Each structure stands twice: as C-alpha cells, then as structure tokens.
Amino acid sequence: MIRMSDAGLRYGPRWIFRHLDFAAEVGRCIAILGPNGRGKTTLVRNLLGFLALSEGSRSAPGIVGYVPQVSSAPVSYRVRTMVAMGRVAQRGLFAAPTRSDHQIADEMLERIGLTALAQQRFDLLSGGERQLVLLARALATGAATLVLDEPASALDLRNQDRFLTVIESLRADGQHAIVFTTHLPQHASAVADHTLLLFGAEDRIFGPTSEVMSEANLARLYGIPVRIVAIDDLPAGQTIRGVVPLFGTAGAA
Amino acid sequence: MDLSAATPATGIWRRLEGGGLWLAVFAFLLLAAMLAGICMGRLSIAPAAVLDIIMTQWWPGGSHDWTKLQESIVVLVRAPRIVIAALSGIGMAMAGAALQGLFRNPLVSPDILGITAGAAFGGALAILLGGSGMVLIGLAFALGIAALVLVGLLSRVDGRSDTMTVVLAGIVVGAMFTAFVSLVQFVADPDSTLPAIVGWLMGSFAATTWTRVAIATPPILIGILGLLMLRFRVNILSLGEDEAQSFGISVQRERWIIFLLSTLIAGGVVSVAGIVGWVGLVIPHAARLLVGPDHRILIPAAGLLGGAYLVMIDTVARNATAAEIPLGVLTAAIGAPVFAILLRRVYVSGIRA
Q: What Å distances lie between residue B209 and B45, B76, B214, B217, CA to CA?
C-alpha cells in the first residue's frame, strides 16, 4: 500500500501537480500516463519520498521495489551482485549477501529470463537488459509495493511481453501493490486495473483502465489522434485492445 | 582481466576467482615490503636477524646473533616507522576507495573533504606556537574534524546534503584552510619554525616513535575496521541516493558515518606524518583495475596494496639519497605518472572494447 493525500508539488510559482489523491492498494496495479515533461518521474519520486511534497501527505513502506529510469552512469558491478543488493538492506548496516540471498537473486534472474547474464558487468549491458536486471532486483527485495518508472521504455517486443507477464503474475497473486509509469498505453491496457492520465497540474483522470483508456482521452493526452482496435479472433478467445497512434495526421485533424 | 567470467566453480576456487587470490598476493606484498623496509637502511640488517629480533621481543631465547645497536635500530627506530607507514597506507587507500564509491567519482580522495587541509593547518599552528608531539597531533586531529563539521554545515540544506554540494563544500573548506596554512608560514620564523612547518607538511615518517604510534593508531584502526565492516554498504550507497533509499536505507546518516570513518583515518595520518598525498587517489584505482569494482573485495585489496605501497615509498625515501626525501614529494612524483599510465590503459581498453 502506497498513497498520497491532497498532495502538491511546486517549483517556484509553478505547480507540477496539486490536490492529488492517489493510492495503490495491495492486489492492484496502477499505470500512470502523461506526455513528456508532465511530471511522471517527479510524481514517482514524491510518492517514494525522494522528493519532499510542497503540501499534502504521503505514506509508503520503508522498503519499496523500485525500478528507476535507466541511468546514464551505471555502476559496473556484476548482475548477480546488483540483484542481491535488493536483499541486504533490510538486515542492517553490516550485512552482506549470504548464500540464500544469492539463491534468491538467481531465482529472480531466472524468472525474468536473465540467467545467462548473471556474471556480466551491469554497465556493459544494453539499456533493455539493464531495465530487466533492475526489475529482478526490485523483485528480490521481496517488497509488497513496487514502483516502476518507465520500466519498459527500452525493451523489445518480446521483452515487453516478458515484463507484462511478470507484472500480471504479481498482480494476480494478490499480494503486491504495483505502480508504473509508461508511454505505451497498451501496457496499461494489458496489466493495469486503474490508470491515471496526467493532463495538467490539476487536470487529470483516474479510473478503471478500460473506462479511462478511450480514443478521446488519449488524443487529448498526447495531442495526436489515436484509434483503439479490438482484436478478437485469437485462438484462446480473449480480446486484445490495441492502441494505434495515427502518426502524421495531427496537423490535418 | 576478467576473473569470474570463467565457468562456475565452487568452494575455494570460487573464492580465489572472486578476488581472494589478489588479496593473498597483496597481503604477501605488504609483509614483504615491511620486512624489506626493516632490513634496509644506512645500517642494513639481515632478514633472519630482524625476524629473530622481533620474535625475541615476545619469546625470549633464540640465537641472539645480533648486536645491541641492531636491536635498537629495529625495535625503536624502524619498526614503529614501518608500522605507522603501513597503517597510514592501508587507511588512506581504504578511505579513498570508499569515498570514490560513495561519490561515484573516481577523482575523489580523503583530501577532497577538506580534512587533510584542516589537519595541516592544525599541525602548522601547533609548530608555530612551539608545540610538538601530543599538542601537534591533537591540534591536527581536532582541526581535521572541524573541517569535516564545517563541510557538513555548509552542505546541509533542509537536513540533507547532496553529493555534489559536499564535494564543493569540501573544496571551499580545503581552500580556506590551505590559505590559513600559508598565513602561518608567512608569520613563522624563517630560521626555526618555518623549516619545521614546511618539512612536516611535505610528509615524513622520520620522527615516528612508539608513543606516536600509540596515539595515531586508535583513530586509524577504528576507521579501517569500520570501513571493512561497511564495505558491502558502500556498494549499495554507490547506486545513488534514490535507489539506496528505496531499500529503506537512511542514506544521509550512513554517508556521514563513512565520512567520519575517513576523517578518523586522514586526521590520524596527517597528525603523525604530515600530508601524504596521492595514496588515497591512486591506489584504489590500481586495485580496481586488478580486482574489479565490487567494494567487498576492493576495499580490503586497496588497503593491503596501499600499505605495501607506502612502506615501499618510505623505504625509498630513507635510502635513495643521503638525506631523506620528503614522503609527499615521492608519493606525488611516483603517484602521478602511475596514475597517468593507469588512466591511459583504462581509456584505451574502454575505447577498444
């Protein structure tokens, strides 16, 4: 469970967001969508307490499974060490990873399909591989709350599917509260129970993903026309709603 | 050199691949340097006699195949000097490795926090006022801590201080204390106190006695043990503030614990030996090239290598010429080119990788 009440953040005279009530309960997955510079990362950092709110309050557990945006100056530890770090914090100042911590790190790497990278140096991985390692580390913390800042921004289609599968399984086990930001509306459609659309500092829509994710809302959010197509001829009988941005037609609209 | 990319191994071999082999090599290097340092000097003494003399201090008996003069040289002159040189090298290199990790900046060393400059001012002031021994050590140490406190106050905004601000505050405080040192030199008597101050500032273990060792060892040793115990924590703190905090860590508090441990080391070293530069900067780099960036191995490896390095430098300082060469001059003269070669190699391998 992680929440903000009547929260606001101001840089000088400019409010980034204000009067925001937001809560992610256990068993829920929430997606945050908004254009570049709308303050998604800022909101995440506020939510986690890395940045102090100008007004309002927040509450979050001490340990959160956090996936930051891919940093420009990554550390050069080995992947296995990176993931094992998620285990150690809760055990005090002098703790170092034990055999069982490394076992859990290996399990998480296997779950995400990264076993082959375990001994690689983190800074030599591609951006997408790094994101998956950070996801493995967030899982390794064992935290019930996961906050992921554009965790899939560098992933190829297959790895996006892998990421969404992991998120879906965490959501389905009913023991995790998950918040993630994304630029891919279809990721929200795929796994988020609720979605938050950030239009402006006080202009936002929050609701069940299927209601919020309309062509009109998305067009307003990004400033380009968007179509939602339903694909329902799949063998398993489910319906996938694809979000298709109509690139190159914004000026004509 | 990539030691752990090989096939997975178990037991002792895995330990060795993980850097344990390097630790053993560096430990051997340190012991060899210490023994060589004790043997060499204006009056050279055979290694066997030295070992015998040392053993006899605890277990009387043995062959007694040495003179009384040789015994006093080993026990009273060279041993304390080599012990403090080793401790200083271990401490400065460990502090450098920890600070470089913490700041995620390879150009950081204990000097950067202004500690060294503060301690230098304290020592210079003590000499100016006619103090020596305990007074000098005490004042150097007190002002080293004062410099750290100043850096803390300067860089603290709303109860937290970010890394960049700490570095800048350290540079500012360092510049201020360096100016004070110049001022002390300016007013010092050119015939008596000025040469003493200049000589002390350039760094030397020449005046080391067991009394001084006893005074300087506790802070340096506390710093060394503390950093050793926190070495995995440095890994986590090096991820950056946000990530470390997401693990539920009080980043501010733990960062200052490491600053304080580094100050204990730097203050202790400066107070007995003056300014011994470069060890805290160069040695962690050399160690990182050999054992990799993981601080679990890097911090002890840098320590052992730093100890060996400083003992060797001190031996050269005593033996290369008739008069002793100031230590600070040697560490810089050797350290800077070595650093240049290391840097060049890292860049070349980075570009060609």
A: 20, 7, 9, 12
**A→B interface, C-beta within 8 Å:** 45, 48-50, 52, 62-66, 68, 71, 73, 75-78, 81, 85-86, 88-90, 93-97, 119, 124, 141, 147
φ, ψ for residue A56 (rounded to 5)?
85, -175
Tokens 């709110």 locate to A53
**How many C-beta neighbours within 10 Å does residue B280 have?**
33
Quick one: DSSP state of residue A123? G
CA dihedral B171, B190, B213, B321 (to 10 degrees): 100
State pLDDT tens for residues B273-291.
Answer: 888 888 998 899 889 888 9
pLDDT band at B7 (very low <50, low <70, confident <90, very high): very low
Residue A33 sits at φ, ψ, to 5 deg, of -120, 145
Give how far Cα B199 sits from Cα of A54, A191, B204, B324, B328, Å.
55, 70, 8, 11, 10
Q: How far apart are CA A235 and CA A89, in angstroms?
A: 45
Mean pLDDT rounded to a whole number for chain B = 85
Cα–Cα distance, A170 to A153 (Å, whole number): 20
Q: CA dist A117 to A80, A114, A132, B32, B263, Å?
A: 8, 5, 11, 40, 39
Query: Does the beta-carbon distance from B5 to A93 stay under 8 Å?
Result: no
Helix (H) or strand (E) segment spanning residue A226: strand A226-231
Which pair of tokens denotes residue A160?
A: 């996006």
Q: How many CB pairs under 8 A join A and B?
A: 70
Question: What H or E segment, with its residue span, contains residue A146?
Answer: strand A145-148
- Which among B243, B254, B292 is the nearest to A66, CB-wise? B243
A51: closest chain B residue by CA: B242
Contact A76 B236 (CB under 8 A): no
Q: pTM for this structure?
A: 0.87
| β-strand pairing of A29-33 with A194-198 | parallel
